[in-house]
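User: Hey, my collaborator sent me this sequence without any context and asked if I could get a structure. I don't really work with proteins. Can you help?
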Amino acid sequence: MTEIRVREAMPDDADVVARMAAALAAHEGKRSIAWTADDFRRDGFGPDAAFSTLVAEAGGSVVGYALFHPGYDTETASRGVHLVDLFVVGTARRRGVGRALLDAVVAACRAGGGRWIAWFVEPDNREGSEFYRAIGARKDPGIPFWIEAETLRASLARRRAPADGDA
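Assistant: No problem. I've predicted the 3D structure and written it out in structure-token form, which is a compact way to encode the shape of the chain:
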């Protein structure tokens, strides 16, 4: 493989990053994702960007990306980074692209005063889990929970409503 170059993503990378995000979802057994190139351009740039994205190039083509956002841990009173996506196209795997992307995420984390990086791996993603263990990552015993904001709002509203016979 030719030299790997990691750089900050630009709005012009939207189509390729969105395609890779869809490929990541398929790799994880998901049929589709709602995220599009337009979402990438809207939410990934400007003063209110929701995330940062790095892309890896080899041979003049984008072959991988890492998408992340800042985080904070009260237990350790420290800043860090939540890695949302790390993906390398199949033909570029096992050639140092993933490591190069993670190294750049570490640099971005440290530049922001961060001390840790956290991410989730789908249970069936053996290849990813092996890669992460090989670089020294460990699984945290915490199990993530997920709820959409509207579902949570409705649930909390039901709990506040008076029960029948109360009033």
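In plain terms: The helical segments are 14-27, 37-43, 97-111, 126-134, 149-160. You can pass these tokens on to your collaborator as they are.
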